[in-house]
């Protein structure tokens, strides 16, 4: 069917009948904007409008679909012929829909499958993706730097350096120690510990150079609400045991 030809044919017959698009629309119960689209050839009339439109324009459905009058067309039994044409069009449309439906279902199913696979792939990547946060602590006694590498299943902890306050090095405030130990905790879970006993007394800042933790792992999932703490215990030259507890709860994400 030539939509442009049919559209011009509808417009020609409407004007011959002296109908406006609005009036023709009222006759066949269609919006006048739709009639304008038919006449412009943008759309073809829907099957449900074929009979009322052809009757309003004084032609047969066959002529409407052809886009021209057929003088040789027999006028008798035109209603039966029109019914035959409409029924065939309805049957054809249903068959086309049925034929189109399986490919459409395949396409929809394929898209859903792709989305499912991509979603699963994303979740796997998200689960195993490593993230890093750094933490540091500076107080009157220590300057400590560390970091955490973690994903959804595990986390690894690092204490890169434990330094003594530079203002106290070599002064009377700096302890002299013969043994020192450190424990690293995540909440109440012990992550790692170190202990050193020296052959002779050493200055505190030298003793601290032995305090570091590399790749201490935990199966507990890390998040910023969890608190890391480092316990440093030592015995000074006066044989007095000292305990310092350093808490880390400020993190910078990378």
Can you give a write-up of this model?
The structure is a single chain. This protein has 254 residues and is of the alpha+beta class. It has 2 domains: 3-73, lambda repressor-like DNA-binding domains (434 Repressor (Amino-terminal Domain)), CATH 1.10.260; 131-253, Sandwich (Immunoglobulin-like). The protein is 41% helix and 31% strand. The protein contains 7 helices and 9 strands. It has helices at 3-16, 21-28, 32-40, 47-57, 61-66, 78-128, 204-208, and strands at residues 131-138, 142-150, 155-164, 176-186, 189-203, 213-218, 228-236, 241-248, 251-253. The strands form 2 sheets. Strands 6-3-2-1-9 form a 5-stranded antiparallel beta sheet. A hairpin with a 4-residue loop joins strand 2 (142-150) and strand 3 (155-164). The radius of gyration is 44 Å and the shape is rod-shaped. The chain starts with a helix and ends with a strand.
Oligomer: single chain
H/E element string? HHHHHHEEEEEHEEEE
Domain count: the total is 2
Give the CA-based shape: rod-shaped
- State the end-to-end distance: 65 Å
CATH topology descriptor of the largest domain: Immunoglobulin-like
**CATH class category label of the largest domain:** Mainly Beta
Taking strands numbered 1, 2, ... along the chain, how are they ordered across the largest sheet? Answer: 6-3-2-1-9
Number of strands: 9
Give me the secondary-structure category: alpha+beta
């Amino acid at each position: 069917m030539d939509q442009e030809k049919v559209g011009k044919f509808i417009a020609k017959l409407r004007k011959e009948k002296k109908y406006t698009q609005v009036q023709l629309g009222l006759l066949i119960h269609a919006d006048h904007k739709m009639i304008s689209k038919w006449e412009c050839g943008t759309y073809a009339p829907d099957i449900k409008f074929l009979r009322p439109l052809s009757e309003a324009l004084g032609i047969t459905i066959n002529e409407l679909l052809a886009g021209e009058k057929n003088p040789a067309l027999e006028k008798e039994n035109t209603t039966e012929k029109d019914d035959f044409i409409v029924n065939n069009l309805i049957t054809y449309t249903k068959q086309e829909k049925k034929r189109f439906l399986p490919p459409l279902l395949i396409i929809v199913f394929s898209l859903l499958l792709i989305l499912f696979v991509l979603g699963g792939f994303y979740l796997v990547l998200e689960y195993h993706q490593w993230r890093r946060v750094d933490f540091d602590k500076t107080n009157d006694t220590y300057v400590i730097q560390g970091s955490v590498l973690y994903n959804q299943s595990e986390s690894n902890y690092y204490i890169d350096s434990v330094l003594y306050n530079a203002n106290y090095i070599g002064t009377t405030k700096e302890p002299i120690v013969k043994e020192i130990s450190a424990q690293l905790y995540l909440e109440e879970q012990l992550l790692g510990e170190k202990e050193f006993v020296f052959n002779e007394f050493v200055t505190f800042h030298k003793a601290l150079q032995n305090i570091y933790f590399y790749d201490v792992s935990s199966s507990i999932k890390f998040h910023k609400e969890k608190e890391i703490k480092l316990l440093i215990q030592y015995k000074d030259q006066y044989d007095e045991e000292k305990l310092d507890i350093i808490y880390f709860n400020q993190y910078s994400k990378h």
